[in-house]
User: Fold this.
Amino acid sequence: MNKSTRKTVIAGNWKMNMTPSAAKAFITELAPMVAGKDGCDIVLCVPFVDIAPAVEAAKGTNIKIGAENVHFAKSGAYTGEISADMLNEVGAEYVVIGHSERRQYFGETNETVNKRVLAALAGGLKVILCVGELLGEREQGITEEIVSLQTKIALQGVTAEQLKNVIIAYEPVWAIGTGKTATPEQADEVCGIIRGVIAKLYGAEASEAFTIQYGGSMNAKNAAELLSKVNVDGGLIGGASLKTADFTTIVNAAQ
Ligand code: PEP
Assistant:
């Protein structure tokens, strides 16, 4: 397995934080700190209203902007929702889909995640697909079954060509926003299981090239060790992506 041939992606997930002016100020401060750090792609997934100012502030830098969700319909009577075409036109390049907070608080299911993945890809976006087990599921010993099922259903109908625009973030739900991090061995093991699922669905070559991030309380202190693991090709970072110094330290760890 050759990790060096895969793209490393360090992505921030701001969740419901930062107003548009705060987003602009953050990116203006961050840009010189991460300039020239070409060992990984750097992405900030931000609230919908922050996308346009974030894209503007990130122009001419190596920071890419993404959204935190997308609706599965092209347009129509879906009050409060945002389509892939809208995100595309405003300059978002990536979108997070299936985050555990969406699954937990907003009724997201494996099936709606799949519909959103297909819509995002059809709309020209790159997808950061989140999968991960609950604490109870890990304790029952069914982590492999859960993440495999989530991955298989989310990717139904995704072609091998489209898969090049998908990355997966393995995010154990018990580690998100809790300060509890999976051990590097746990992260590596489950990222490896996901890579195995990709191999079964799309073949060995596609799975070797496929980027799999770890997410769940990744921070400035633990990033280097997590990112050193053979199956961990980056991070999806919540809390620590709200501080320019911490986020820069994580980007540096990925060089
Ligand atoms: C996340 O929001 O995807 C996440 C991993 O959050 P945190 O880093 O705060 O645990």
Summary: The radius of gyration is 17 Å. The chain has a mean pLDDT of 97.
